[in-house]
Amino acid sequence: MMPPWRRPSRPKPPPPPAERLTSAALAWLLAALTLAVAPHAPELPVWLTALFAALVGWRGWIALRNQALPPHGLLLLVAVLAGAGVLIDYRTLFGRDAGVALLTAMTACKLLESRALRDGVVLVFLGYLLVMSNLLYSQEMLRVAYLLAVLVAMLTAQVLIYRQHAGLTALAPVRLAGKMALLAVPVMLILFVLFPRIPGPLWGLPKDAYQGRTGLSDQMAPGTISELSQSDAVAFRVRFASDLPPPRQRYWRGLVLWHFDGRRWTRPEELPSRTPIPFAAQGAPVDYAVILEPSNKNWLFALDLPARLPPGSFMTPSFQLLRDQPVNEVYRYEMRSHPLYRTGELLETERARGLQLPLRGNPRARALAAEWRTHDLRPEARVSAALALFRDQPFYYTLTPPLLGGEIVDDFLFRTRQGFCEHYANAFVFLMRAAGVPARVVTGYQGGELNALGGYLIVRQSDAHAWAEVWLEERGWVRVDPTAAVAPNRVQEGLYAAVAEGGLLPFLARRGGNSEWLRQLVLSWDVLNIAWNEWVLAYGPDRQKEFLSGLGFGPVDWSEMMVATVAALSGLGVLYAGWRWRARRIRDPVARAWQQFCARLARRGLVRGPSEGPLDFAARVTAQRPEWAATVWPIARLYAALRYGPAASPAQVRQLQRLTRRFQIPCKD
Amino acid sequence: MFQTLRQRLENWVMRGQRPAREPVLLTRRRIYILPTAQGYAFATLLFVLFLWAINYSNSMGFAFTFLLTAVALNSMWQAHDNLLRLTVHPGQAEPVFAGQEAHFSFRLENPDPAPRYGVALQGRDQPPHYVDVPAHGAATVTVTVPAPRRGWLRLGRIRVLTRYPLGLLQAWSWVEFEPGCLVYPRPRGRRPLPAALPSAAGAGVGEQGLGSEDYAGFRPYAPGDSPRRIAWKAATRGGPLLVKCFTDQARPELWLDWRLLGIDHVEPRLEQLCQWVLKADREDRQYGLLLPGARIAPAHGDAHRRRCLEALALFTHSEGMPRPHDAAVAPPKPAQTSTAAR
């Protein structure tokens, strides 16, 4: 990723004029590089953006005024200072962000020592690296379209760098570059679809490789989920093959948190299973495909309860789906879930985990739970008692709960009584455990918005949710959502309907209101996004195998893909060659028609001499075969008129073609 | 080593091809294509981008890498097509004197409705000379080579090449033409012109120089007349160019005779003769040339001078003297000697 920065050992002699960068090439180069760096500007330190702009401007000024380039010593100083600046800002020279910063700085410095053709080529190559680095930050459609334009500008610069194209006028190089990019698309598509994809990464990625992605974390403490409600970024989209389940069944199971330390809930190590954990399904399954946005985490989401495993992933006994590799690209997987189910027996280890509580803390909550226990209520009744507590006491569902003290359960249950879903799940599971009912916290997403135009469900980060599961003797693990007791419409209609402070929610997480039309417009645009994500971005090694196997050839391996790639490319080459051959043939229809005519006569022994004109030839033919005069003369006259007269009209050309086609020599003389 | 390999490759490719007298049409079979240094660098870049895309599992990174690959492949077609169906006409070169440079002008003809950009001709060990060939048109490229020795200077194989459009690949073809450039001996020597002898007609003895000629009037200018004889004064008054005529029955004959020169070696003798020819021509004298085995009767004018110089350029001595150079290529050829030594 480091640009090839050479330490100049001696001043470079100015290149001969033939090797010098022309001003047109330099102008395109400056423009293309600026366009390539521009999307990075928000992430780069301000000084670096300013440095880049200044050096680009300086180089332009030098070219405009025909001045000398700055001395190498000065450039070296600037380069070293820029490198030091990057080191200070990022505390490293490696990694994604620092690498991009370094690439930008070195490109800017290289600009100021560029005078020869060779320097121009180095700059163009740096430009291609800059374009690529943009893709590490975003692969959205608009960004990709923009980068395609940058690529064309870069190609234009590359065309112009070769001085010998002095004959190319102002717009011709751009047209040429655009044409080349366009002609490259079919080959690119073949390679994209067929060339065997190797699952990455090949070696360790820098720590910041996928920074800046919001998503569910593997712990829960007060505030972790309400923080997510501030983001309307898409978590995943779902296409249903069967009917859309009703909102109360749209619980997207993510992580199961067992361990409570008095402040936060965490996830213990669980035995991974390569086959789905069995349970007794009741009722029809739901089939769907999830198109997950990159999260840099390895958890996958599925409706309760998942009955299938995507390739390269595993399941834990608490029905969590986990992938071997973190999801760093758009990932699509097909799932099947059973909304109605009954799980099996509770193991002793599970019971111990499901009843775990810190030794001390939250005495009032413990006392309340002990009360339910001493009243000898059955576990179901204890669950109902807790839900009734939330329902009947003045509990509020809010995005902005007051801060909790050290005893977070007691403080919430008996003092603030305002909380988001994690507060309720936390307090509920605590009460259940204290009351002797095995319980656990489940985090994930709840609900999602149906995009009517595309017929799929969009689940956003603001749909993040936490709920509880309790283990009951006859039914196994049962989902209980304490939030629903406080705010039933959270489950039915989503977050916006359930909280009073809807204005705090990000735009796309709202429903209705004055700007609903704009939101609908964004949703329409999202239909394109899901197609893009599902078919383009999610096309990784797994999806490729799935797609190619689905074409009817059975399972394919990489060598077969290689063969298919070569075959498809050759096929395309043959097609292209054929098209060009045809294009050349029809370029001169007049000559072709005449040649056919002459060839027919030649078969009867009437060969046209190499310098014999059409009329002379016709005279000779009709002298030998007077009976053909009626057909031969019109053809010869028309041909002569078209060839040597004023510009031919298409009608005349067609006429000639018709006449020559009709000219059949009688088989019998 | 590399030179030798290249030489052998070239010889292999050109095997069985005679130097042509006719224009050469660049067909598919004659066009070769290989990546340039930048092309190899670009391939490395593509590999780096590919690894990058794998490592970050970046779908669009793959697409970008593949698109650039496809562009490079496409530029291969374009480079090839940029030469295809061009016609190279044999290089024309005006005679020069040894020590000067010979300029070969090649005409490139494009029969297609699309222009050809950045086509170059390159003589061996020479920088390429680039030109654009317009649609349905022609362009001329001049290849300049030093002409160190007299005789026929052949350019040898020249490369018609293009790096259009991206400079990643070079398509080229080799052409070799029969006609060369005639190189006259270098005009050198300090001896004065020999004394003129009375002409065979015998009239008017011992007079030299222009002043002795009798002015006889004007006649209209005809191509080939010496500019010295044009009546410039009359010309400034307008009207057709006129030439002064002299009656010169009395003129003595000037013989530039090989035997007059006591120089040991052939080349210095020829150089002195060449010098004399030029001097006599400059002075607008009647002069003849006598060489072993050749005699050019006295005359004057450009055509005569050319004839004399040609005779000097192509002179071969029959008495075991070293033959003047007329081998294929004039520049020193270390490559060939090394091939021979191996």
Write up this protein.
The complex is a heterodimer of chains A (669) and B (342). Chain A is an alpha+beta fold and 669 residues long. Among the domains of chain A are: 173 residues, no CATH class; 44 residues; 75 residues, no CATH class. Chain A is built from 23 helices and 19 strands. Chain A has a 5-stranded antiparallel sheet with strand order 11-6-1-17-16, with helices on one face. In chain A, strands 8-2-15-18-19 form a 5-stranded antiparallel sheet. A 3-stranded antiparallel sheet of chain A has the order 7-10-9, with no helix packed on it. In chain A, a hairpin with a 3-residue loop joins strand 18 and strand 19. The longest helix of chain A is centred in the C-terminal third of the chain and has 30 residues. The N terminus of chain A is likely disordered. Chain B is an alpha+beta fold and 342 residues long. Chain B has 3 domains: 181 residues, no CATH class; 113 residues, no CATH class; 34 residues, no CATH class. Helix content of chain B is 29%, strand content 25%. Chain B contains 7 helices and 17 strands. A 5-stranded antiparallel sheet of chain B has the order 2-11-10-6-7. In chain B, strands 1-3-5-8 form a 4-stranded antiparallel sheet, with no helix packed on it. A 3-stranded mixed sheet of chain B has the order 4-12-9. In chain B, helix 5 links the parallel strand 15 and strand 16. The longest helix of chain B is centred in the N-terminal third of the chain and has 25 residues.
